């Protein structure tokens, strides 16, 4: 929603106040026709851009442009199309895809969705001109009002990521991750260039496929918010290093990067190039990891760090993302249970901390059934829609339909009840043993209530279907056993 600001109109003999001109997109016009050189002020006031105009005193006019203004002439902003990085877009109409010609990456092509004001700000950095409060400048540029108020409660488990995505105009992942990096002080600690950092987050958000009902940028933002909640738990907050925090948030934001909307078995049975590339092992997770590394290098976000440190961070990022492979769920769960039984987890040990980050990311990835019912139900419907879409493609091309993806033999309730019982609950029971906190108790309570809610819904649906079937059979039975009596006769 755009808000039109009524700005003060000043006498002609007074200079324009600096605090007005310093506002984002502020432009001052004199009422002199020679300066306007074209449309009258009243005509300008009708144009888009929230123009405030006082008809009684035409000595000055202030215009504040709201939203991003893209410059298309000299600076040549060209938002890159999706799929411009070397990883491919999968067209499932033919079940196969051909590599697109790799586009040369230039400094100008990398400027994605930068507003005019952001470009001016970045130019100050490039020319070594210091800014008074650059961090607050970018933050104020990105979110205001209700979205900013929501971020003050980003650590609450009932955080509504769907509402936040609407308030940020579909930019929930960019705004959330930037806010969390700022909250933890990671920008200053790692001396990150804020323009590069924002560009990197925008590239991540762009490379999630918005047409996916579930595996999209909103899901990535939801997982990132959940990961933040886990990082705040006492066991982790007291021991994690700044590098652990940075990698944990990056892994959450990129863990499903460029997800094609189908699962690994589908890629394998259709002989997709990704399955061959990664030898049918953690195919999607390897692709997410390599895509994230590609964007890290394209953005030059960590280029100021020593090469050895960059490579180590990329490897650790991969270890976290690969842990989200659901086919290896039992392996990680068994190791986690063994550690807890022995009580030998020591978070001063770097390897143990990395393992706990892996488990935290796994929990964040499948935590939807542990959210409040209002949020959990939406996610359940979205993931089932994506499953059924894959099943429709398989049936259309005469492939064996994946059991969970068959809409003719499955329902949202059945899929969710099984998922909660065999995947979610075993993992969160062990997580609760590791971190027995109020958050863990809340999650287990929601999980129990949601499972009961799906069971009750399924039972009602089955009972309704049974009654409808009985009503259809009953008239047929009566008709077949009854005798037609002549009009006016009486049955004995």
Distance between the first and last residues' Cα: 77 Å
| Strand order in space, largest sheet | 1-2
Residue share in helix? 55-70%
| Rg on CA atoms, Å | 28 Å
Number of helices: 22
The counted number of beta strands is 2
Give the class from helix and strand content and strand pairing: mainly alpha
Uncertain runs: 1-13, 24-127, 480-492
Rounded mean pLDDT is 79
Inertia-based shape: globular
Which series of helices and strands comes N to C?
A: HEHHEHHHHHHHHHHHHHHHHHHH
Q: Work out the strand percent.
A: under 5%
Major beta sheet summary: 2 strands, antiparallel
Give descriptors for this structure.
492 residues; mainly alpha; two-stranded antiparallel sheet; 22 helices; disordered N terminus
Structural commentary:
By secondary structure, the chain is an all-alpha fold. It has helices at residues 18-21, 33-36, 41-44, 116-126, 134-142, 145-151, 161-167, 172-183, 186-189, 194-206, 217-231, 234-237, 242-254, 264-269, 273-277, 283-299, 307-322, 329-342, 350-365, 373-396, 412-434, 438-481; strands at 26-30, 60-64. α8 (172-183) runs antiparallel to α13 (242-254) and α11 (217-231) runs antiparallel to α13 (242-254). The longest helix is centred in the C-terminal third of the chain and has 44 residues, at 438-481. The model is unreliable at 1-13, 24-127 and 480-492 (pLDDT under 50).
In summary, what is this structure?
The chain is mainly α and 492 residues long. It has 22 helices and 2 strands.
Task: Summarize the helices and strands and which ones pair or pack.
Blueprint: H1 18-21, E1 26-30, H2 33-36, H3 41-44, E2 60-64, H4 116-126, H5 134-142, H6 145-151, H7 161-167, H8 172-183, H9 186-189, H10 194-206, H11 217-231, H12 234-237, H13 242-254, H14 264-269, H15 273-277, H16 283-299, H17 307-322, H18 329-342, H19 350-365, H20 373-396, H21 412-434, H22 438-481
Antiparallel strand pairs: 1-2
Helix pairs in contact: 8-10, 8-11, 8-13, 10-16, 11-13, 11-19, 13-17, 13-19, 16-17, 17-19, 18-21, 21-22
């Amino acid at each position: 929603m755009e808000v039109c600001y009524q700005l003060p109109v000043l006498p002609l003999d007074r200079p324009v106040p600096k605090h007005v001109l310093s506002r984002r997109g502020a432009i001052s016009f004199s009422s002199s026709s020679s300066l306007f050189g074209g449309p009258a002020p009243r005509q300008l006031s009708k144009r888009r851009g929230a123009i405030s105009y006082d008809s009684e005193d035409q000595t000055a006019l202030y215009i504040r442009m709201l939203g991003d203004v893209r410059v298309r002439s000299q600076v040549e902003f060209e938002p890159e199309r999706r799929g411009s990085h070397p990883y491919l877009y999968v067209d499932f109409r033919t079940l196969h895809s051909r590599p697109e010609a790799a586009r040369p990456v230039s400094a100008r092509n990398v400027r994605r969705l930068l507003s005019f004001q952001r470009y001016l700000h970045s130019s100050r950095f490039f020319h070594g001109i210091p800014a008074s409060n650059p961090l607050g400048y970018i933050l104020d540029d990105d979110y205001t009002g209700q979205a900013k108020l929501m971020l003050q409660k980003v650590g609450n488990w009932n955080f509504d990521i769907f509402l936040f995505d609407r308030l940020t105009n579909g930019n929930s992942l960019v705004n959330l991750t930037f806010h969390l990096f700022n909250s933890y002080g990671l920008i200053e600690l790692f001396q990150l260039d804020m323009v590069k950092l924002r560009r990197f987050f925008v590239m991540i958000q762009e490379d999630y496929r918005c047409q996916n009902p579930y595996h999209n940028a909103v899901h990535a933002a939801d997982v990132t918010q959940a990961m933040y909640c886990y990082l705040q738990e006492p066991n982790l907050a007291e021991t994690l290093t700044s590098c652990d925090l940075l990698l944990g948030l990056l892994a959450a934001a990129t863990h499903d990067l460029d997800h094609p909307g189908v699962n690994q078995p589908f890629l394998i049975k259709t002989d997709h190039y990704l399955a061959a590339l990664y030898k049918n092992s953690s195919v999607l997770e390897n692709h997410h990891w390599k895509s994230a590394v590609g964007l890290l290098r394209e953005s030059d976000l960590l280029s100021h760090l020593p090469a050895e440190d960059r490579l180590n961070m990329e490897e650790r990022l991969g270890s976290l993302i690969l842990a989200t492979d659901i086919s290896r769920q039992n392996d990680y769960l068994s190791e986690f249970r063994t550690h807890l039984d022995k009580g030998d987890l020591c978070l001063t040990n770097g390897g143990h901390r990395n393992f706990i980050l892996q488990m935290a990311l796994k929990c964040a990835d499948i935590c939807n059934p542990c959210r409040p019912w209002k949020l959990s139900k939406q996610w359940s419907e979205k993931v089932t829609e994506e499953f059924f879409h894959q099943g429709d493609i398989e049936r259309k091309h005469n492939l064996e339909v994946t059991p969970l993806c068959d809409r003719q033999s499955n329902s949202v309730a059945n899929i969710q009840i099984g998922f909660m019982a065999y995947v979610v609950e075993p993992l969160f029971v062990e997580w609760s043993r590791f971190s027995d906190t109020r958050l863990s108790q809340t999650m287990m309570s929601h999980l129990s209530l949601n499972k009961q809610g799906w069971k009750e819904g399924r039972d009602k649906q089955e009972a309704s279907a049974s009654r409808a079937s009985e009503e259809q059979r009953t008239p047929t039975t009566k008709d077949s056993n009854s005798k037609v009596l002549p009009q006016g006769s009486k049955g004995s």
